[in-house]
Design a protein that fits this description.
The protein has 190 residues and is an alpha+beta fold. It folds into two domains: 9-45; 50-188, Umud Fragment, subunit A. The protein has helices at 8-44, 70-73, 161-164; strands at residues 45-49, 64-68, 84-88, 96-103, 108-112, 115-118, 121-122, 138-142, 147-151, 167-168, 172-181, 187-188. The longest helix has 37 residues, at 8-44. The model has no long low-confidence stretch (mean pLDDT 89).
Length: 190
């Protein structure tokens, strides 16, 4: 039996077709990967940089975190007391803040010498070390419907609801979920 003789021009043409098919597969996969990344960043998870010390020790200055934008966007997840949320600052909607939810709509929030009371009950705040508390007091406020009372964990270094009032639900756009930088602090946000 005789082996077929390959025409060098045909072999070169087949090699070119094979390279083009491979390039087309790579281009398709790359386009699909970029599309998935864009959808994830725009609609679900967004990387953000923490600026400032108002959320210490939970989050530190210059830390990088992911926020989940999907959970609150479509009303799927409820905003709960203790959530760390990212929102447009009520005084300037071009600035984003991150704070912890302390009061829900309808709650009565009062701060007495640095101790937070919600509906007459002292709020357990293990995330606020004593050295980060201040000893300020604030009159009781009933949180309006569809609004939230927020505080920073580093109370003596936080600009929050004690200074400028509650945050409307429509301005809350994300929940802090994961620290990814620096590596020694990598993990879920607590």
């Amino acid at each position: 039996m005789e082996e077929p003789v390959l025409d060098p021009a045909a072999a070169k043409a087949e090699s070119t077709r094979s390279a083009l098919r491979t390039a087309a597969f790579w281009a398709r996969d790359l386009t699909l990967s970029v599309l998935i990344a864009v959808v994830l960043i725009v609609f679900i998870y967004q990387p953000v940089k923490v600026e400032g010390t108002s959320m210490m020790p939970s989050l530190t200055d210059q830390e990088r975190i992911f926020i989940n934008k999907f959970t609150y966007r479509f009303g799927i997840g409820n905003i709960e007391r203790g959530d760390m949320v990212v929102f447009w600052y009520p005084g300037d909607h071009s600035k984003s803040y991150i704070k912890r939810i302390v009061g829900l709509p309808g709650d009565v929030v009062r701060v007495d010498e640095g101790v937070v009371f919600v509906n007459g009950q002292r709020l357990a705040e293990e995330y606020v070390p004593d050295e980060y508390r201040d000893r300020q007091s604030c009159d009781a406020i009933r949180v309006p419907p569809d609004q939230y009372y927020v505080l920073g964990d580093h109370r003596s270094s936080s600009n929050d609801s004690r200074a400028w009032g509650t945050v409307e639900r429509k301005y809350i756009y994300g929940k802090a979920v994961f620290v990814y930088w620096p590596l020694d602090r990598m993990g879920r946000v607590r």
